[in-house]
What does this fold into?
Amino acid sequence: MIEVFNATVVYGGNSQRLEAVRNVSFNVAAAEVFGLVGESGCGKSTLLRAIAGALPLARGRIALADRDVGLHRTREERRLVQMVFQDPYASLNPTHTIDKILAEPLAIQKIKAIDERVSQALAEVGLGLEHRYRYPHQISGGQRQRVAIARALIMQPGILLLDEPTSALDLSVQAEILNLLKRVGRSRTLTMLMVSHNLAVIAHMCTRIAVMYEGEIVEMLEVERLRRGEANHPYTQRLLTASLDGAAAA
Ligand code: ADP
Ligand code: MG
It folds into this structure.
């Protein structure tokens, strides 16, 4: 469903030139939940933005649902991939009601039966209709992330890109959102690519992971092997040790 081949993404030019993602290749099968881990600044969000069509590739290619895609995408290609960001407060327009936030992308795509789709989307993410005409600041952080997920799902995408979708949330709320993502992913047979720096989150959600380090994928492994501590790359080993220490401290 997602094919990334030798993808390189560059910011700036001349002395400012930075290859934030370098020669990255991986595939994600239909309905698979694939994890992307690595420390802050290693290029995870850049890679997701390139897959979403928000950044150009300097080299390489990306295919989604067996079709090569570029920066300029058809309406259908844009609908296919939806993204959920870390901070729902920043990603939701504060001057729009939840109703408008959910209705707007449908209107842009000239989709009909907007009213019905909005109420269905709210129900799917477990938000009561009483929230429909509230503003983002009038609901909790977890509810805001539910709205962001509803806004992605309402487009009926095949692929969901999740950029640290729970790391801005309280621990108890994190689990609720992860379970929601797991449930809708299964019921809609979504292909998901999920960024997290939390290996416990990744292990809960994913079947396979890629480990990024300084713009490159340094290791790809099954979550089962991660659980058994069978990482090859020293950086993955360090991540594992750090997360075990974190779990022991918690
Ligand atoms: P991650 O999501 O893994 O934390 P990012 O993809 O956000 O990493 O960033 C990768 C690298 O690219 C970092 O060195 C970051 O400073 C740089 N970077 C990110 N966005 C921009 C931008 N818009 N312009 C220039 N450099 C950027
Ligand atoms: Mg990031």
